[in-house]
Amino acid sequence: FRLALIQLHVSAVKSENLQRACGLVREASAKGAKVVALPECFNSPYGTQYFKEYAEKIPGESTQKLSEVAKECSIYLVGGRSIPEEDGGRLYNTCAVFGPDGAMLAKHRKVHLFDINIPGKIQFKESETLSPGNSFSVFDTPYCKVGLGICYDMRFAEMAQVYGQKGCQLLIYPGAFNLTTGPAHWELLQRGRAVDNQVYVATVSPARDEKASYVAWGHSTVVNPWGEVIAKAGAEETVIYTDIDLKKLSEIRQQIPILSQKRCDLYGVEMKE
């Protein structure tokens, strides 16, 4: 099946972002994409100072638009982090997924909050305004199971392992790495998660805006289960496409059967209830 990643240029105007995103979703569908993903923070600038201002409830204005365009195009739409989600007085970094009938299939709240301090490079603390999610998020398609993470979630190998145990063959991470962590780790982490779990890994970033207070790395990418980069964007706004070959995935798992050769008598990763 064909996967499309929309590397959107995000402005400070929510309505413009929504309109542009929906237009590119329609374009991707017209080119045969069956699963389409938007980037982290596609609907607002990225920064703790923006989260409260742009926050919405789910369902709300932005997710309603995503639901409508998913139904119109009859696709599976991974809504990046459409908006900071407000729920019970708390804010979450949330990714909503919609099916071809417009129904919401999953709502992933970012599990690991991005609190880092690299002296002289970047300091950022999502926990100043956001609360963490507490669950894994999987949704079914006619093609395969898909596991969701958001940006910093990709650094935690255990999360991807749990998704592998749940039968996921594709992991999608809307993300917005910056100009320090992007060139160092963006592709490396994707290839690691793909090889470790013998899955496809897709990451979808906002386009780079040098004038923004937080500058995203861009370079939305798809990696196959062999660890090969099979599609990659530059820094500008674009849509990249790749065909997810589940037969190839099956062949790789048969050739190097790590999933059946794990020493569960010696070690293990498990999801807690």
UniProtKB/TrEMBL annotation:
Keywords: Hydrolase. One of its GO terms (biological process) is asparagine metabolic process. GO terms for molecular function: omega-amidase activity. Signal peptide: none annotated. GO terms for cellular component: mitochondrion. It catalyses: 2-oxosuccinamate + H2O = oxaloacetate + NH4(+); 2-oxoglutaramate + H2O = 2-oxoglutarate + NH4(+). Its EC number is 3.5.1.3. Pfam families: CN_hydrolase. Belongs to the carbon-nitrogen hydrolase superfamily. NIT1/NIT2 family. PANTHER family: NITRILASE-RELATED, OMEGA-AMIDASE NIT2. This is omega-amidase.
